[in-house]
Design a protein that fits this description.
Rossmann fold, globular, five-stranded mixed beta barrel, alpha/beta, single chain, about 30% helix
Length: about 270
């Protein structure tokens, strides 16, 4: 996988000499949540990476400036449930890190489990529970990182404080909590959501945790932000659909855009 990521990075360097300081992954419905002063863009397929088959995930990297910083924006992600291994699904964030990003902000749409979470809330991920296959399974490539990376604080505590202060300036309270990744693509059952709550999860989704593992493997700082697009199954009082997730995201995009601009400006 290192050779594949390195090859994609080499193709990227052939097209641009832009070196990002920060990368931002935009999750479901959040493809327009960064107001970037764009300088260059390229599709995942042009880099030899798998493209996303999910509506709302454009599958391209956009490079430019945001709040005075050089930023790479990954518009959409590749999911395990699309038929890729976890190791393949994390390749885009690995490429962003190899291209220079020392900090990565991962965003997603998630179902709210915590009783005080409402649709439209944004949660800083404090920790995660990963029920998808670990992307590090198999022989370790020391060029990525150590065989047994530490996961004591997968989401950088200093970055969480940056996000909380940024949210205050934007006029809202940033929630905090534990995110749980299921494999998808089916939404979780009510029993699975109940189990997740017992395990300590506050929000549930189908991405992010495996990317965090891969990035921490590489020594990259990670911030995770979930926007609560719906109450999780059994708590919503109605069936769930991806269309509802995308509709709710349209309401929160402006809020997320302001938050990300403030956060990026404050990252040291």
């Amino acid at each position: 996988m290192f050779d594949r990521a390195e090859s994609a990075c080499a193709k990227l360097c052939e097209r641009t000499d832009f070196v990002p300081e920060i990368a931002i992954v935009l999750g479901s419905g959040l493809g327009d949540a960064v107001d970037l002063d764009e300088e260059f863009s390229i599709g995942y397929d042009e880099l030899g990476l798998p493209g996303s088959t999910v509506h709302g995930h454009r599958g391209r990297m956009v490079f430019g400036r945001l709040s005075g910083k050089k930023v790479a924006v990954l518009q959409g992600r590749v999911h395990f449930y699309e038929g890729h291994s976890s190791a393949t699904a994390v390749l885009p964030v690995r490429v962003a890190a190899l291209a220079g990003a020392k900090t990565v902000i991962l965003t997603n749409a998630a179902g709210g489990i915590a009783p005080d979470f409402e649709c439209g809330d944004i949660m800083a991920i404090r920790d995660h529970i990963c029920l998808a296959p670990n992307p590090l399974i198999g022989p370790n490539d020391d060029r990525f990182g150590p065989r047994f990376p530490d996961m004591t604080a997968p989401y950088d505590p200093e970055l969480i404080e940056v996000a909380k202060r940024a949210a205050q300036r934007c006029g809202f309270e940033l929630k905090e909590g534990v995110y749980i990744q299921f494999t998808g693509p089916s939404f979780e059952t009510a029993a699975e959501v109940k189990m997740a709550g017992i395990l300590g999860a506050d929000a549930v989704g189908m991405s992010t945790a495996i990317e965090t593992i891969a990035l921490r493997h590489m020594g990259v700082r990670v911030m995770g932000l979930s926007f609560i697009s719906n109450k999780a199954c059994g708590l919503a009082g109605k069936p769930l659909s991806h269309e509802d997730v995308n509709r709710e995201s349209e309401r929160v995009v402006r809020k997320m855009r302001a938050l990300l601009a403030e956060i990026v400006g404050d990252i040291q």
